[in-house]
Amino acid sequence: MSVADVKKNAQDRMIKSIETLKADLAKVRTGRAHTGILDHVMVEYYGNPTPLSQVANLTLVDARTIGVTPFEKKMGATIEKAIRDADLGLNPSSQGDQIRVPTPALTEERRKEMVKLVKSEGEDAKIAVRNIRRDANESLKKLVKDKAISEDDERRGSDDIQKLTDKAIVDIDKLLVEKEKEVLTV
């Protein structure tokens, strides 16, 4: 393993951490409806817990309503119950073949709770990035100990890893600011 390998590995892991944060932030509900809210809803389908997106078509009816059209008509009541039980604060209602899921407007207090949640997710991502930096620096120290690289190479490598870390933290902060603004917009 070389310094370049350590840097590449650290960079890839940091990018994955940021992608994970993006996915987690997409699940945080804002005042507008989006189908991502229902991503982790599991429906009992022939005895197996199955993601909602695999048993129904999800669409946006309007800015505050998600439309859920089951692939099988008999699944309507099961899907409705799964959405209610998912503890998302949503109350679906059937209208013929389609289930409408209105997203209620957020209160000011709820918006502040969401901002705290967003900040917590961001802090978790930053901790993950710092752990990646620590692992990479330990790998470099091990390479020096095994006499695979010089101390100068290690110093340059750890400086580069610090730059990667700083860039990842800045990217995380940008994501958090955008999401906070989105959550607080009425």
What does this structure look like?
- The protein is α+β, with helices and mostly antiparallel strands.
- The chain has two domains: 105 residues, Orthogonal Bundle (Topoisomerase I, Chain A, domain 4), CATH 1.10.132; 68 residues, Gyrase A, domain 2.
- The chain contains four helices and six strands; from the N terminus they run H-E-E-E-E-H-E-E-H-H.
- The strands form two sheets. It has a four-stranded antiparallel β-sheet with strand order 3-4-6-5, with helices on one face. A two-stranded antiparallel sheet has the order 1-2.
- Helix 1 packs antiparallel against helix 3, helix 1 packs parallel to helix 4 and helix 3 packs antiparallel against helix 4.
- The longest helix has 38 residues.
Spatial order of the strands in the main sheet? 3-4-6-5
Weakly predicted, low-confidence segments: none
Radius of gyration based on Cα positions: 22 Å
Mean pLDDT: 88
What percent strand?
A: 15-25%
Domain Ribosome recycling factor: 21-184
Family: Belongs to the RRF family.
GO molecular function, one term: ribosomal large subunit binding
Pfam family, one: RRF
